[in-house]
Design goal:
The protein is built from eight helices and nine strands. By secondary structure, the chain is α/β, with parallel strands linked by helices. α1 runs parallel beside α2, α1 crosses α6 and α4 runs parallel beside α5. The protein is globular. One of its GO terms (molecular function) is oxidoreductase activity.
């Protein structure tokens, strides 16, 4: 392994955006990957693909973002085996769709914050000292890339808890960027992407974190799912933005424009959000 070897840690790497990013970076010369997720079986499949694509090595670690000890262990194991972290991509997350006033089990909102916000915070905390130390020793900044969402800039219907977790993420890393100038921070805020995330949302039968909230009815979304951003396009923007060390990226452009217009024409943006991101609740009794 050469001194130029780049160590990249990706959380939530067993599917969706995380898996796609892992495969993109695996193609790069002198790259070692550390992939983390709750699903070790799927991670092993991604690991095999990444090795075939040419990365120097690919380590997989079982990781529950909501568990502080797992977050600490991920960083400790990485440093023990690879001695450094050049790029930490925080991507593990979960969604939840429901009308807040119909929620019967409010613990689902705490669970979402544990995964989407505290998971990012814990993992970052345990990596900071090493990453700052690398800069002080070499003069080269390590980087933390945060996969957030436009839902952290724009409130959306049926996603109150999810938006809250993403607003927290965006605010936290905006502050941290100023506190820790020895590290480059890139916060990425994509639109709705065509991934399995919705099928794995809290309350969905496919999710092993299912909170069994009986208030979770089926939602018929206004959104045309065929118009959701493709995984390939999303990851292309993410990788390009990380390479350019951009601080904050809202994409596609229509979403960025909405964040600019919102303070000036809030009612217009809310109407558009209802039209594009809203939906209707189908009671379980009618399914």
């Amino acid at each position: 392994m050469t001194d130029n070897n780049k160590v990249i840690v990706i959380t939530g790497a067993s599917s969706g955006i995380g898996e796609s990013l892992a495969k993109s970076y695996a193609k790069r010369k002198d790259t070692s990957l550390v992939l983390a997720s709750r699903d070790i079986v799927k991670l092993a499949r991604v690991q095999k693909d990444c090795i075939q694509l040419g990365c120097n090595q690919c380590i997989i670690i079982k990781y529950d973002a909501s568990n502080q000890l797992d977050c600490e262990s991920l960083i400790k194991q990485t440093l023990l085996k690879l001695k450094k972290i050049d790029l930490l991509i925080l991507n593990a997350g979960v969604s939840y769709h429901n009308l807040f006033r119909q929620s019967k089990d409010l613990s689902v909102y705490r669970q979402m914050m544990d995964i989407n916000f505290f998971g990012y915070m814990y993992t970052t905390y345990y990596a900071l000292d090493q990453m700052v130390g690398q800069y002080e020793k070499t003069g080269v900044k390590a980087q933390i890339a945060v996969v957030s969402s436009v839902s952290g800039e724009l409130g959306l219907p049926l996603r109150a808890g999810y938006c809250a977790s993403k607003f927290a993420v965006n605010g936290f890393f905006e502050s941290l960027r100023m506190e820790v100038p020895q590290i480059d921070f890139t916060v990425l805020m994509p639109t709705s992407v065509n991934t399995p995330m919705r099928q794995h949302s809290l309350g969905h039968s496919n999710n092993s974190c299912n909170n069994n909230d009986s208030s979770t009815n089926k939602i018929q979304f206004n959104e045309d799912e065929s118009k959701r951003m493709s995984l390939e396009d999303c990851c292309f923007v993410i990788v390009r933005s990380i390479d350019a060390k951009r601080k904050k990226v809202v994409f596609p452009f229509s979403n960025y424009l909405a964040t600019v217009i919102k303070p000036i024409f809030p009612n217009f943006i809310e109407r558009m959000a209802m039209k594009k991101a809203g939906g209707s609740i189908v009671p379980q009794s009618k399914l």
